[in-house]
Amino acid sequence: MRKLTILGATGSIGASTLKVIENNPEHFDIVALVAGQNVEKMISLCQQWQPQYAVMANEASAQELAQALSSLAIKTEVLAGVDAMCHVASMDEVDTVMAAIVGAAGLMPTMAAVKAGKRVLLANKEALVMSGQLFVDAVRESGAELMPVDSEHNAIFQCLPSDVQTNLGHCNLSEHGIEHILLTGSGGPFRYSELSELEHVTPEQAIAHPNWSMGPKISVDSATMMNKGLEYIEAKWLFNASREQLKVLIHPQSVIHSMVQYKDGSTLAQLGEPDMATPIALTLSYPQRVKAGVKPLDFTQISQLTFMQPDFERYPCLKLAIEACYIGQHATTALNAANEIAVDAFLNRRISFTHIARVNKWVMEQICSMNEQAKCDSLESILEVDKIARSLATSYIDGRNA
Length: 402
Description:
- The protein has helices at residues 12-23, 39-49, 59-71, 82-90, 107-115, 126-142, 151-158, 162-165, 203-206, 216-224, 226-238, 277-285, 316-327, 329-347, 355-369, 379-401, and strands at residues 2-7, 28-34, 53-56, 77-80, 96-99, 119-122, 145-148, 178-185, 246-250, 256-262, 267-271.
- It is α/β, with parallel strands linked by helices.
- The termini are far apart.
């Protein structure tokens, strides 16, 4: 029986993880649940799962949760803060950690799980976007098991030989006959919109993803295709891929989750319903498979599968991410930080949809001009670049709205 800590228990990935566990109670046991500030949801989860530990992002939320659980006679121990998150991600009684805290906040506890040699189910993009080389080197050094949760990376993982699957971050694609990794993306809700209309997109329109059910931030990232850009950076690190080996395809139906092309002309693809429970189930049970609670595809109901090249004029954030990927860790860290600030500003109607890319580009240029490359050699230095980039993005947005 696998014993789990779930980082990001109240989010959409957390919910899908709990769905899989509910379908397979004999295989999994929850030791700790970690969340941000959603006390009400955490109370409900603690009632249902009775974990040994519950961790909240701050003391106020933790105190509120502790009082509520005490009144319900639930014996879960409540903790608070990043150090507590790192503790429950690395403690001896846990062997598997779902890393699903959105944003830079998830970096430290995810790295703690890696350094403790856990099976890490990686749903936190920032771990690789911000600390790619450090992260994959830490995986190798500790003997941790790295399992990609993102549907695209999980699809690629499933199409790879086992020798590559068990050597993520340091594999050699060419040695295994792999020519290209094809990273697919739906193109979001505006793939057919007139470019002139994008300036007037509302937050409500941007979070209405046509295929997937996701949180507001990730939904906006899907609409700008920054999500695919961050996944591109992740794929580069996960699969040790060169620029020539890594390609992006728009696939509006989201049926093929990604593909791998081999030098003999074969292309392997992973297909399925757009439900995150499928990749989560595989990462939890690998190399076996368990029921995910997801219905299989009905091919008689699929009218067509279409593909197109990404239009960088429509998706400037995707272009920025690909460029940042080959500039260096300081560029990807800056881009990710700026994007978090910009998306939040858009969701709060402080900037327009098209200004997200402008904020991202400006901040990345500023960080690159500061020659921050040499400083990105530790988690502390990476977090410092992240902090500077956030401050720059905030100042830029405040200046526009002054």
